[in-house]
Amino acid sequence: MLKKLIVALFVLGALIAPKSLFAQEANVCVQIYGGGVVCGAKHEVVDTDLGDVNPVVLGAGLLLASLLTYKLSKKFSSQI
Q1: Whole domain around residue 67: which residue ranges?
Q2: Spans of the chain, pLDDT less than 50
Q3: What pLDDT score does 68 carry?
């Protein structure tokens, strides 16, 4: 049951996450005088920073989430 839930959450997350958030690119065509047209992708920098998140708060949240996962895992495995 828990494994199916985890797999479903990963699949749902992969489907919901738009690819445009991870990379932004545009096609740029340049024509040099006397030459041909050269086209390529122009990549732009995307801000992926967490912002002003305190690392202590982030670490404590991850530890609490892992503790909750551990407790739920023990609870559901004892019922099987």
Answers
A1: 23-79
A2: 20
A3: 94
Phi, psi of 9 (to 5 degrees): -65, -40
* 16's tokens: 């919901």
For the entire predicted model, the pTM comes to 0.38
Residues 1 and 11: their CA atoms lie apart, in Å, by 15
In this prediction, residue 18 carries a pLDDT of 54
**Under a CB-based contact definition with an 8 Å cutoff, are residues 46 and 38 in contact?**
no
Tokens of 43: 């990549």
DSSP letter, residue 35? S
Cα–Cα dist 11/9, whole Å: 5
Residue 10 lies in a domain: no
Q: Kindly state whether residue 6 falls inside one of the protein's structural domains.
A: no
Structure tokens belonging to residue 1:
């049951």
Phi, psi of 35 (to 5 degrees): -120, -170
The reply to whether 30 falls in a domain is: yes
Rg (CA), the chain: 23
